[in-house]
Structure formats: structure tokens, C-alpha cells
Amino acid sequence: MSLLEVRSLERRFPVGKGWLHAVDDVSLEIREGECVGLVGESGCGKSTLVKLITRLLDPSGGQIAFDGRDIGRVPAGRFARAPERAQIQMVFQDPTDSLNPRFTAFDIIADPIRRLGQVARGGAMQARVRELAEMVGLPEVLLGRFPHQLSGGQKQRVGIARAIALEPKLLVLDEPTSALDVSVQAVILKLLDDLRRRLGISYLFVSHDLAVVRLLADRVVVMYLGRIVEAGPVAQVFASPGHPYTRALLASVPRPDRRSDQSDGRPRFRLTGEARSPIDPSPTVCRFFGRCPDGFERCEREMPMLRSDAAGHSVACHLHA
Amino acid sequence: MSDPPIPLLAVEDLSVEFRTRGGVVRALDQVSFDVQRGETVGVVGESGSGKSVTAFALLRILDASARITSGRAVFGGLDLVTAGEAELGLQRGRELSMIFQNPRTALNPIRPVGRQIGDVLLRHANVARADVKRRAVELLAQVQIPDPARRYGAYPFELSGGMCQRVMIALALACSPALLVADEPTTGLDVTTQAAIMDLIRELALRTNMATLLITHDLALAAEHCDRIVVMHAGHVVEVAPATALFEAPRHPYTAKLVAATPHGAERLADLAAIPGGLPDLRGELPPCRYRFRCERYAPICDGPLPRVDVLPGHMVACWKPL
Questions:
Q1: CB contact A118 to B (< 8 Å)
Q2: CA distance B306 to B287
Q3: What is the C-alpha to C-alpha distance for residues B100 and B185, in angstroms, rounded to an integer?
Q4: Largest separation between any pair of C-alpha atoms in chain A
Q5: Which residue in the set A185, A186, A252 is minimally distant from B192, CB to CB?
Q6: Which residues contact A197 (CB under 8 A, 6 or more apart)?
Q7: Residue A184: its chain B contacts at CB < 8 A?
Q8: Could you tell me how far CA B17 lies from the centroid of its own chain?
């Protein structure tokens, strides 16, 4: 059963004389307990989409159904009092910037419970925060420390404990490991994977690191200039990417087994040129046209629509059979 | 066998300390490596391992609280450690250039980017004042900035992160340096932009036989683009090896862990290794091997002075019990 169902979601921002189409006709679904990876370049609309789903921004059109209720209709300013508010939580990219420097780890984790939870103060709260710290592998002695007294990995554990404190159904992870060293990244990724299995939470995992998405997500959604260009099961998208943009993304991931000065027989696939403007884009031109190595005349007169195969792998490209 | 060529840069036993309120931080300890002409050498390690301090020490742009306590860094016959400011000023920007991690803060925010390139040309390149603009536009075109004549007058805030980094590269390459020090040149950029920037550096390096010292925390990136890799841990060089050998058969336990923690090779999340513990506190007494407390192979022999073992020609490991 699907936990989150986004249909034809749109968000436009006024800029000068026109409209910037940050999110344009986006539909996606996250099932219960599923981890969906969201990838794309900066400026592709990932963050706007996340803000729409976490209801920090109001959509310009479309629906956001969460657990069967259209939360897209609740104005962002009033969502803090909606019953779904506690069900959707977020883990941020930079654990330093996203923790209150004047709160101890204990208070940071207890804060959402105090605001939105039902746990009584005193002993019950103490026990709950300790339980959460244990779940994320944060030693209890660190609960009295302030963020600046913690390492990057420890801070991210505090951020995760805070996010799961209210037993949410959906966790939005915005580049949760990109500020961490590889040595710590592996630990945090394993922790996230373990928590999902234990608690049955669904994840929307936003990342530009495709190598990480491949390891954590069940399905992946690729965005380009506000639109979804490809979506499908991780294994299929990585093994046989259907959209030229996805192919370019995958070709850009550094691979230690492929030396830059030695050609492996095939030319390296690189994107050239600049992206089209997201301001008042033509509804009849493929957004990737101009940067696409395979673009042809039809791409300039007809916007390709997402078409799905039996396995749920969908691609928006005229060239994809 | 012929004698090995004289390296373009030879760093020998370089040590750097920082005086802080909490005590003296021994950020670099006896760091040694060299860079040949035209070669790309990667310096990898976790944050706090001393990668950037090494780069900053080479250009002598360390913080005022830092002191180089020992060692030499001979670059084209000049010891960068003891050279005077006047001598250094002639080298920096001309023979020795650097690109910084955050291009937007490294560029002057209130001067058009083309003018900033022009400043370098006027200072170092013997370009006539009348030709400066034309040459700067050429350089912008060389780093594949679209519409370079228009972008000449752009301010850094008007350009994307990738474009700012291209400007930084144009600035660094304005005088065809012999050595480019690139400190995390693509961190924070998109993968597609990262690939384009790395291709660009590689291509320009090949064309002008420029050597590159690539400082990065991304082992996969280093392995793909570098000829040789220097692995640093807590201010020590723990392993130096050709990129392929380092990735396929790492000999230092720390390098092996780093390789296993890099997600690119792993099939499943479970295959990903974690490195236990963190970097040691670099203040106060430290054991000869600073990896000792995190190392699974620790034995009493490791308390002896840190060895430098050449396990193969060109493959050095600072370990008593290499893999």
C-alpha cells in the first residue's frame, strides 16, 4: 500500500516577468517501508519537491496524499498543527547547522516530543530519550553534551534520533552523509538501513551520490529541470538507464576501476553546454534538449512523457522504446 | 638503469605545528613525497588528516598560529620553506598555482571575474595592458565558459558554483604553472560538473605538461584521475603508491579500510566497511604510529619508530605489519 502519493505536483515561483517552474508535473509514490532515492543536479527541483512533501511550501497545483489524506490542501502555515506533522520528519545534510547549538543532545532529541508528542515529562521522557539514543547508537554519556562537543557522526546520530523520536511513517533524508567522511558515512548508512527494517519507516532519500543511492534505495527517481525523467527499481535503472541524462549521471560517478587517461574502448559520456532556463519553459520542448547528445527534431516540438514498462521502470524520452 | 629524474617538487620531513589555547597541535609530522613533472598526484585522507595543511604549507599561506618546525619542500631548486616572501611571490601564481575548495569565497566578490584574471596576467605574465582583456577572455574560453566575452564582466555571485570553479581554474592556469595544487576542487559540485572540471584539469595538464597535486577526500575520484596517491592519516603519510596498486592491493591497514569504506565497489550495504574510532587528539604525546588505536593489526612491535618500507619499487608503506 502506498504511504505517499504525489500526483501532478507543480510549484512555480514568480521571477521578474515570468514564472520559474521549480517542480513541474511530478508524480511519485512511496510505499510503506520503502526507500525511494531522489537524484538530480542542483537546481533540478529536488529541494522544492522535498519542501512541498514536508509541507513547508504550498504547491501551485496537484495533490499530495499521505496515508490516504490530501495534505496538499492544508496551508503550509497551518500544517504544524495537522495530525500528519509528526508523521513526516526530516534529517538534514549538515548536522552542525541543523542542531541548535545551545541545546544539549538530550534537549535536541526531546524537543519534538515536547512539542508534538504525548510522552509525559520527567521519568518517561528520560527513558524515551535514552531509548532513542540507544537505537541510533549514541552513547548515553553524550546526551549531556552540546553539538560542538560532538563529532560529525555523533551529531548526525542526534539528528536521526530527533527525526525518529515521534515514530514517523516517512523520513525525508536530505543528503544525510555528504558532510561526513567515508569512514563515518558507512556507519550512518548502515544505521539508517537498519532503522528502516526495524521500524518499518519509509524513506525519501535525496542525494547526488549515486553510489550511495544504489546501496540504500529500493527505487530511484531522477529529476531534471523540475521534471522526472526516469524512475524505477534501483537495479534496473543502474544496469540499463533509459534516459540520456541518467546515463550521463552514471558516467560521471568516479570509478576507481576506470582510469581517466586510459580509454576502455568507449568514449566517456559527458554533458556539455548549459541547462535550459527553468523560467517559462516551453511546454512542447524536452527540457534536456540542447544538452542531450541524442536530441533530434522531434524533441524540439514534442515534450516526451513518462512511459512505464511492466516492471515499473519509466522513462521520459522519445528514443526509449 | 638510469637515475630517477629530479622531481619537480620534493617534500622531505615536513612538520607543521599549530599553537592553540588547548596546546600545540602537531598537524603534520615528517611528511615526505614528491611530484614529477606532468604527473598527477593525489593526497587523500579523512578531514583532519593534514591534506589541506600540506597544501597551505607548500604555498606558505598557513594561518599565523602555524609554524613549520622541520623539513624542506624543494620546488624547481627553491626551498619553499625557507624562501623569502619576494622569491615566493615570484613563484606563486606563476609556477605554482592553487585552486581552493570553495570558489565563491576564494574569488573577490566585488570585482568582475575577468578583471581578476587580468590582475594575475599583469602581475606575472608580461602581458601588455592593451592585451589583458583579450587574453583573459581567451582563458575563460579555454575553461569552456560559454559566452566568455560577456562573462568577463560578471561578478562571482552571478555565476554558478561550477562556473566559479572554472574561473578559479582559469585564474590558476593563467601563467601555465608547472604545478597546480587543487584543494578539493570539485567538492560541493554536482557529479556531472565534477566530471567536466576533472576532465578539464586533466586535459590542460596534458597539454602543458603541468603537474597536479589533487587533494581530495574522495578515494574513487583520486583513483580515477591520479597517477600516484599519497594517503594521509593524522598528519602522517601512511602509504604512497601508484593509483591502481593502491586500490587493488593496499598495504597499509588504514588504506585498506578506506578502500573498503568507499561505496563504489560495494555490491550491498553490508559489504561496506566502517573504520572504527576517530583521529587521535594531535595535542600532547602521540605514539609513533598514530593509527595504532584504530588498528586491528596492532602488536607491540608497532611502538617502535615509524618505519618507511618500500614494499615494491615506488610503493611505500609506513607500517610495521603491512598487509
A1: no
A2: 9
A3: 6
A4: 69
A5: A252
A6: none
A7: 274
A8: 19
- If DSSP codes are grouped into helix, strand and coil, which group holds residue B199? helix
Residue type, A190: K
Note whether B269 contacts A215, CB cutoff 8 Å.
Answer: yes
Output b/e per residue, B116-128; b: 16+ Cβ within 10 A: bbbbbbeebbebe
Is the minimum CB–CB distance between A297 and chain B shorter than 8 Å? no
Beta bridge partners of A29: A5
Phi, psi angles (nearest 5°) of residue B15? -125, 140
Residue with cell 597544501: B55
Q: Kindly identify which residue of chain A lies nearest to residue B206, measuring between CA atoms.
A: A261
Residue of A nearest to B255 (CA): A183
Place of cell 499521505: A66
> Are A316 and A304 a contacting pair, CB within 8 Å?
yes
Bridge pairing between strands B23-35 and B9-20? antiparallel
Q: How many CB pairs under 8 A join A and B?
A: 117
Tell me if A252 and B195 make a contact (CB, 8 A cut-off): yes
Query: What residues are paired with A61 via a beta bridge?
Result: A10
Tens of pLDDT along chain B (323 residues) come to 456 678 999 999 999 999 998 899 999 999 999 999 999 999 999 888 999 999 999 999 999 999 999 999 999 889 999 999 999 988 888 899 999 888 888 899 999 999 999 999 998 888 889 999 999 999 998 888 888 999 999 999 998 888 898 899 999 988 889 999 999 988 877 888 888 889 889 888 999 999 999 999 889 899 999 999 999 999 999 999 999 999 999 999 999 999 998 887 777 888 888 888 888 889 888 999 999 999 999 999 999 999 999 999 999 999 999 99
End-to-end CA distance of chain A: 29
Instruction: Please judge whether A254 and B258 are an interchain contact, meaning their C-beta atoms are less than 8 angstroms apart.
Output: no
CA distance B24 to B142: 45
Would you state the cell numbers that stand for residue B39, as one nine-digit string?
Answer: 604527473
Residue B147: CB partners within 8 Å, gap ≥ 6? none
ipTM: 0.81
Look at the block and give the residue holding cell 524512475.
A231
At B224, list the grid cell. Answer: 580515477
Q: Per the CB < 8 Å rule, is B161 touching A185? A: no
Closest chain B CA to residue A213: B263
Q: Measured between CB atoms, which of A41, A254, A272 is closest to B220?
A: A254
Q: Alpha-carbon dihedral of residues B66, B67, B71, B72, nearest 10 degrees? A: 80
User: What cell numbers appear for A279 in the block?
Assistant: 523560467
Please name the residues in contact with A176: beta carbons below 8 A apart, sequence gap of 6 or more: A91, A92, A93, A156, A159, A160, A188, A192, A205
Nearest to A256 among B196, B217, B264 (CB): B264
Distance from C-alpha of B10 to C-alpha of B137, rounded to nearest angstrom: 35
Render B294-321 in DSSP notation, one character per residue: G-TT--GGGGSPPP-EEEETTEEE--SS
Residue of B159, B264, B267, B279 to mutate when probing chain A, most A C-beta within 10 A: B264
Nearest-neighbour CA in chain A from B87: distance (Å): 35
User: Which residue among B199, B219, B224 sits closest to A270, beta carbon to beta carbon?
Assistant: B199
Q: Closest Cα to residue A256, out of B89, B317, B37, B216? A: B216
Whether A256 sits inside 8 A of B223 (CB atoms) is yes
Cross-chain Cβ contact A209/B263 below 8 Å: yes
Strand-pairing partners, residue A6, are: A28, A64
Residue B243 to residue A212, Cβ atoms within 8 A: no
For residue B280, which residues of chain A lie inside 8 Å, CB to CB?
A: none
